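task queued by scheduler; priority normal; single chain, no ligands, no partner chains; default sampling; output format set to structure tokens
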Amino acid sequence: MSAIQALQRFTKEVKKFPFPHSFEPVRKKWEELSQKGFLDRGQPWLSAFQLANFTKFLVIYGSEKPRRTQFDLARPFNRYKDFWSAVEQENRYSTDPEFIAAFIFRFLYQQLPYFLHRGRVPFMFDSTRALYLSSCVQTNGGMIWSMSDFERETGLPLDAFLRVSEKIYLFFQTRMRTDKESLESCLDEKDRRYLDSVLNLLSATRSSFREAYDGWKADHFHEIPYEFNPLLRFPIIVHQSEYWAPLPELIAYAATKGLYFYLIDTFRGPFQKWFGEMFSGYAANLFIKHLGKSVVLTEADERSHAWQGKTNDFTLVIGSNAFLFECKTSALFFDSKKESSVETIARDIRKNLANPKHRSGLFQLYDKIEAIKNKKLPKSLNAYYENVREFFPVLLIHDRIEYANHPQTFRNLLDAELRAAGIQGFRYQLWHLEEIENLFEILSPTSIDSALEEKFLNPSYEPWDLNTYLYEKTERRFSHLRLFFFVPKGETEALRIIRSLADKR
């Protein structure tokens, strides 16, 4: 059976399910899966990503004539697996390691947003408040972008958006559908005036959901398994006078992690520049808050010593160790986050994280370390590094990434760029912001230096994610640090590698 035939069989099956009443069995399965930490050993075929994907198609294709009272989700789920398997069989992937690395990144990136542990939702909102509301970024004496831009666009302050969104999420935890009057009842009187504006950002009618999907869907049906899911932007579906939230944790995602994508989609360049500078400042301040200002050198600190050469966003200097951090908002640029082309992803990873032409990303870190080793910095700045014997460069990314340090993933692409520039054996790590937040939440400040050193130098730990390292070092006590991915049927070289990565964690 061809992939197009398999897709037709799947959509035909979805059309048998009534919209929106079929949200009910989806919500039931979501609750079961959530309570088991997203791994149900009795139903290993079930995943959060799979539920969200089916729900997307249910909004698009589901019947508005409720003919059924019982729903067997196994049939459409199996049809979707058949489709995805057929896609993989028809896609003759290159065996080139760099191509496979980009495929793996795309495969993992697609599923990460759906691991939303209920117990971590308060952390998600608190982290977002701290990230967006604690900074004011200016360049050349003028404001690049500000929260007032968000308020002018949406009709509500950002802190009100987060506050109301969190209350709406908590409300939907105990029910799946409601009317507007009931939603108003869960809000304080002062926040009720913001409800319409918040719902404008988080909800969509069926027609507007379809319109959004048409703008984001894959250009080729072979890429459908990897396309963007509009539920990540519109987790609340409006039907007649009711509001439905089949997957409530997606409300929390849209209002926190997903907020970045709304803002960059709406404001583009000005917000992107503001966010890049704000993000690096926020990350540096995390280390300052927990370890003290005396061990942290920011870019501004180094410029104050008249250093004009290549530098990084901030450096942690503890004893004989220097951890150099260069912050990137994402491994990808904006447009390729909506596309699912492996070639586009590979291009962006190279351009954004290891750009030899502009000496940015890893080249920036390499040049800075060489300057320190060769004492090219101003004398007063060299003094900060005079006792350093080990250098540990880190690309810190805002977007969540997984398996980034394993040589078979997109690290493969970065190493290729370094080799092409004559750089061999450059030891570095790729971490994301949430991992740093987890680091300070889980470990004591006095153990940070030794933990990060071990993460770099121990050959067993070096290819792991920082989250995986923390998971193992804390005897697997923190289940939210562990992920389980949904792998389609069939065998390709790339999928075999994905399984081998999972086996090694």
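post-processing summary
- The chain has a mean pLDDT of 90.
- Residues 268-474 form a domain with the Restriction Endonuclease fold (CATH 3.40.91).
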